[in-house]
Design a protein that fits this description.
alpha/beta; single chain; Rossmann fold; 10 helices; 15% strand; globular
């Protein structure tokens, strides 16, 4: 009897919370570009009884993502795929954000869409930033949703003259994630599998802590103050939503996004918050 495989791409706070929640009794394949973080994450999981394998991956490179998908398929039934890897606006240049957050997600969806097992499910961790922009228009939406991944960064709407900065690149990438998940859900569905996304707001992870202490920290604090919840979220709260999307209770859901932001987007749309 083949083992079931859980793939977690990105070993930050959210990725590890989901791995702990979903990984018991499975082969857990952890992947990340940071090899030391990868080793540390595996050690922590193994110490509490999980069966863990690790593999270096650069999600912006198709050969690297292809190799990861191939390794996962060789281990057993790829039943769950969790893609959390990404860069924040304060971490990188616009072109690097587009490469990792937009192209990287497209490559993961395409490559794992070829190996996901019947009955399997995947999730992409996107962001509430995907809800912050005005509508792009049908032409841009179609291009972000359907352009083959290898041609994605050639789109006119993604060139330096069209993307005003890292914040814009991040928001475009996250809106693109929503559109891409919806489109790729059709391909995943042909294999009897599902794919959805989650758009967290401010979740208190080491990455979020870094952002809070950066020059954009005041913006984060204004979002928290204007939100309904008036607090940050936790990685475990995101993992609870992930468990639902990866489990049998959500069998009728695919191509969808769940917004978990404590009401930040609601406050923006009500005019209580201006960024």
């Amino acid at each position: 009897m083949q083992t079931n495989v859980l793939v977690v791409i990105g070993v930050g706070g959210i990725g590890m919370a989901i791995a702990r929640r979903e990984g018991a009794g499975k082969t857990v394949l952890l992947a990340d570009i940071n090899e030391q973080a990868l080793k540390d994450a595996a050690k922590n999981l193994e110490a509490t009884g999980y069966n863990v394998t690790i593999q270096h991956v650069d999600v912006s490179l198709r050969p690297s993502v292809h190799a990861l998908a191939k390794s996962a398929a060789s281990m057993g039934n790829v039943m769950q795929v969790v893609h959390t890897a990404g860069l924040s606006p304060n971490m990188a240049s616009p072109d690097k954000i587009l490469m990792v957050d937009l192209l990287g997600t497209a490559l993961v969806l395409e490559e794992f869409g070829n190996v996901i097992a019947p009955g399997g499910a995947g999730i992409v961790i996107s962001s509430m930033a995907g809800y912050m922009f005005p509508p792009f228009g049908q032409e841009m939406d179609e291009a972000l949703a359907r352009t083959p991944a290898d041609d994605l960064l050639k789109l006119p709407c993604l060139q330096p003259t069209a993307v005003s900065g890292s914040g814009a690149a991040y928001g475009i990438s996250k809106r693109g994630n929503h559109l891409r998940v919806q489109t790729e859900s059709l391909k995943w569905g042909e294999r009897g599998a599902r794919i959805n996304s989650i758009s967290p707001g401010i979740i208190m992870t080491p990455l979020a802590q870094h952002e809070m202490e950066s020059p954009v920290g005041d913006i984060y604090k204004s979002m928290i103050k204007a939100s309904v919840a008036k607090r940050v979220g936790t990685a475990d709260e995101v993992a609870s939503a992930a468990a639902y999307l990866l489990g049998s209770e959500s069998n009728f859901m695919t191509g969808s996004d769940i917004l978990i932001d404590g009401g930040v987007i609601a406050a923006m749309r009500a005019g209580r918050l201006t960024l």
